[in-house]
Write a structure and sequence with these properties.
alpha/beta
């Protein structure tokens, strides 16, 4: 389905019983709505699952960037308004987890809980150039240039040997609109909200892969320390895209948290 959301055309999907409490899913950088196919299947018997192509990704319009997290966060709330969803659970991976932190700060009244997966609250100054370099290479050589370096960060050595998993993720990267990728990269480059996280009071679960080099365990430990009452799950033998690498274990952690925090 498509609609005009926050000034752009957005592609989204809704699954599960209309009367069930909603869960909003936000995919990571250079992927799309299909990233959540498996989790949607696990959630949709008991929840109304809302997933979408983020600004500049998949079939959603790709306005010229750079983007800001205030705008990217407003995209989520505007979609909820369009669907007449007053409150929901939220789960986001990587850049989706960054959006989740902003949602907890700026729109806490719209959410019952947060699950922040493979994420960080700050890009250190020495890493800012890295994000600019990725944009420059993508502009010069196309999105296919991002496949090999991304896969080295995204999945473990063992999981890179799985042809179906590799092909699925590589295809998502290759088909991501260049302007959308660039807009998000430059937003991520400027991320620095660690000192604000103490203001988040929503029930929060943080999940990270033990072998994640992109958003390492230490980054999730910082978020966990700053958000009072949050819990932290470190999944063994997986990297950044842990939900694609070990979906059964990931789904178990997600569902257990939602059951522990039923919406009221």
């Amino acid at each position: 389905m498509q609609a005009s959301i926050n000034g752009m055309r957005m592609n989204y999907e809704v699954s599960g019983p209309e009367s069930a409490f909603p869960v909003v899913l936000h995919h990571p950088l250079a992927t799309n709505v299909s990233f959540w196919n498996e989790l949607t299947g696990a959630l949709s018997p008991d929840y109304r699952v809302v997933r979408f192509d983020a600004r500049g990704h998949g079939q959603t319009e790709a306005p010229k960037g750079p983007y800001s997290f205030e705008t990217l966060t407003a995209d989520v709330v505007a979609l909820m308004d369009h669907l007449k969803i007053a409150r929901a659970h939220f789960l986001g991976l990587s850049m989706g987890g960054m959006v989740g932190q902003y949602l907890g700060l700026l729109h806490a009244d719209r959410f019952a809980s947060l699950q922040l997966v493979s994420s960080t609250s700050r890009i250190p100054p020495e890493a800012r150039q890295l994000w600019e370099d990725r944009v420059q290479v993508a502009r010069e050589k196309g999105m296919s240039s991002q496949v090999t370096p991304a896969m080295q960060r995204w999945v473990t050595d063992a999981n890179r040997q799985k042809p179906a998993l590799f092909a699925r993720l590589a295809r998502m990267i290759e088909t991501t609109p260049l302007e959308g990728y660039a807009g998000w990269c430059l937003a991520i480059r400027d991320l620095n909200i660690t000192e604000r996280l103490k203001a988040i009071t929503l029930p929060t679960r943080i999940i990270v892969g033990a072998e994640d080099p992109a958003t390492p365990v230490a980054a999730s430990e910082v978020i966990h320390r700053e958000i009072k009452g949050s819990d932290l799950i470190v999944m063994p033998a997986v990297s950044h895209m842990l939900s694609a690498e070990d979906p059964a274990t990931f789904h178990r952690h997600v569902l257990a948290f939602l059951e522990k925090h039923p919406a009221r």
